[in-house]
Write a structure and sequence with these properties.
2 domains; Sig_transdc_resp-reg_receiver; elongated; alpha/beta; 5-stranded parallel β-sheet; Rossmann fold; single chain
Length: 189
């Protein structure tokens, strides 16, 4: 997220009218950075942090597929939606994207998809944080005296942090379920 608190989205398409349209559609809830080529997209990603990306598959000078492969090779794990005129085929099975939209796309579809990507990304972060903290607590509980733990301010802070992380993960999960992703997220309870 940027300093203004808005998630940052990368929109890549060789048609500037489309990236301008995506930017207008998403401007109320997201900071949108646009690129019109694979090279420009990779330059932006090298210098900025993104919460999600929209990639066109076919562009002169480099494809969205190549950009996606390079993003993953550089360990950028933010969610990506392919927004393209290319009908999906079995070639997409091995591609590490999170969603796929076939053009033409509408405003609501783009807004819903990008919002969902950002929520899924935050859910992953919250879930990762929860499991890391819960594991620390489990290690301490397995190796330390219960009375010593109960008297430890650090342990009490850790327990509170676990509870907070679980609450944040559950809230993100609930938001995902509202968007129709029932059955795709594990129950933390």
């Amino acid at each position: 997220m940027t300093g203004d608190g808005l998630p940052t989205i990368l929109a890549v398409d060789d048609e500037p009218s489309l990236t301008t349209l995506y930017e207008a559609w998403l401007a109320d809830d997201f900071r949108v950075r646009t690129a019109s080529s694979a090279e420009e997209a990779l330059e932006l990603v090298a210098g900025e942090s993104f919460d999600a990306a929209m990639l066109d598959r076919h562009m002169p000078g480099g494809t969205g597929d190549e950009v996606l492969s390079e993003l993953r090779a550089r360990d950028h794990d933010f969610p990506v939606v392919m927004v393209t005129g290319v009908e999906p085929d079995t070639d997409i099975v091995e591609m590490p994207f999170d969603d796929y939209l076939v053009k033409p796309v509408g405003k609501r579809e783009v807004q819903r998809t990008v919002r969902s990507l950002v929520v899924r990304g935050s859910y992953n972060d919250h879930l990762r944080e929860y499991f890391a903290l819960a594991r620390k607590r489990a290690v301490l509980e397995a190796s330390c005296d219960r009375e010593a733990l109960e008297n430890s301010a650090s342990y009490r802070e850790l327990t509170a942090a676990v509870d907070d992380a679980e609450t944040r993960a559950d809230a993100a999960r609930a938001e995902l379920l509202e968007d129709g992703f029932e059955g795709t997220t594990p129950d933390l309870g």
